[in-house]
Every structure is written in structure tokens, then in C-alpha cells.
Amino acid sequence: MPDLTRISISLESALLAAFDRHIDGKGYATRSEAIRDLIRDLLVRDEARRTSGEQVAIVTLVYDHHARELAARLVDKQHHHHELVVSSMHVHLGERHCLEVSILRGPGKHVTHLGDELLATKGVLHGEITFTSGEGAFNQWR
Known about the structure:
Elements: H1 13-26, H2 31-49, E1 54-64, H3 70-80, E2 85-92, E3 97-107, H4 108-119, E4 124-133, H5 135-140
Antiparallel strand pairs: 1-3, 1-4, 2-3
């Protein structure tokens, strides 16, 4: 088990009560576990804003598969940056709409650029880029 340091924080009682309800609903055993997750999430997001070093991102896109040549344009963009695309999954949401999930990995600037390019493709109805860190970042927080 890694070295643990005990800290103390002060919170308004209403804020603490809301936090406790939230973490109870998520199934956390302790406040410490929930706070550790929040800190890691903040650090991962902060690292993703920096454009140097390796980044890992999950790009989700929802689109109408009847949109003219949209699926082909999305695939072409991914093939053009094949060195960044680790994996993609295509899910049929219904008769018209599809969900595309792609995992990207590479230099931060390039991952961000491809993610933004996919989201900005005409015909994409909804999407999001979620960043996480590579192995190195998580190792440094142990």
C-alpha cells in the first residue's frame, strides 16, 4: 500500500451533506476514496490541457447514418491519422442513428486535433472528447 498522508479540510455542512449523498449513491466506501478520485480526475483533466506528452482520449460521436457520405468521411479522417486510432466501435442506436466510439492515443496536440476534427464533421449530431492519461501519469500518483 502506498504511503498515505492524513489531511483535514473544512466544508460547509450543506456542501458536505450533498457530497455524502452523492458518494453514497456512487457506492464509495469512504470520503477519502471519493476525494482521491476527484483529485485524480482534476489532475488528468489538467494534464490533458497541456499539449505535450502522450494523451489518451475517448471520442464519442452520434450521427444519422443516412447523412450523405458521413460515415465514409469519418472513417477517412481516422485512416488519415491511423497512428492515433487505437480502436473504434460502431453501435446502431436505432433505425437512423449510430454511435461511434474511438480511442485515440498519441501526442496531445495531435489527439486533440483529431478529436476536434471528428466532432466538427458536418452531420455529427452530438459528441464529446474525454481525456484520460497514459500509464506514466497514474504511476506518478501511487
